[in-house]
Design brief:
This protein is α+β, with helices and mostly antiparallel strands. It contains nine helices and 17 strands. Strand 9 and strand 10 form a beta hairpin. GO terms for molecular function: hydrolase activity, acting on ester bonds.
Length: 341
Amino acid sequence: MRVMLIGTSNSIFKDGYRAEFENSKDISSLTFHGMGAACSIILPFFLSKVDLKDYDFLVIETSINDVLQCSRGTVSHDQIRANLRWACAKAVNAGCKPIMMIMPTLNGVRNRNIADILHREVAAEFQAGYVDGHEFVRTAKLLKPRKLDLFFQDKSHLKPPVGRQVGKLAIAKMKSMKKKALPTVGVDHDFRTIPAAELGDAPLERVNSLMSISCHCMQQGDSVTVDIGRENYLVGLAMNRTESWGHLNLSGGRNASMALQTNYTKRPVSFLAGIRPVPDFAPDPEGRITLKLSSTALFEDLVPAPAGSFAPGPEGANVELMGLILKCPAPPLSRGKALTG
């Protein structure tokens, strides 16, 4: 089986579920893209330029951060649904079968949450595989009673050996779906990305164990105007979290500001990729948006800053933009027979 995996922090951990994929005799090739603390907006970032016809399965593991960011008000139900539906449609229309992999949280085992419900609904719509890590933990606890926290290394992440067991379930799900026929499906939107190289000259190259990417650097007072097209919307800002602070002020069909620095960035590294979801932000009548960096917000907040989660960062303002994510009208999709094997 040829597998494309898009995952968050659980996919990055050494000896976690990705190691189960890498060591499985049933998986002939594995292509992996991962980003910690990122919601489903990473799907268009990583997949917009990928042809999934070269893969048998697309494994989507973003539910943990969809849950966390949804509860904080930084991503909406509609945004999550749009990201998931687009990725599933892109997969099935390429002959690739989507697998929704739900990695559990300590609170999620105890209480259902809306983001996981959205994942389940989209999986049902596209007849995708669904691997429920919450149910796995509940069942394991019933079979061998123990404290729930013994399954977890912290409130949001399984211990890697437990994660590998969920990885085994995902592999079994893929094997069971190898010959299943999935219908082609259309959605009313598409995504594309504008990389840093198109935002300005002399981009900075950043490298870590997960990726190598160019960044467009801006300092306090700098601005950039981008032609995104009249029918398109800005929906995501990809950036280096550890070198981004201050406020990014957006002007287009309206004006709004976004605080950049978060407590998550307080780590001794120079490059930590992240993507901030943006509620559909329309351009001006000419199809342009302007991004201006300042130390304080120039306009009302685009997304409420959750109490206690934002830190001011150093003096002034700085941002290293890896790119912009745009939502676009969908091109006509060919509708054919059900896809097999």
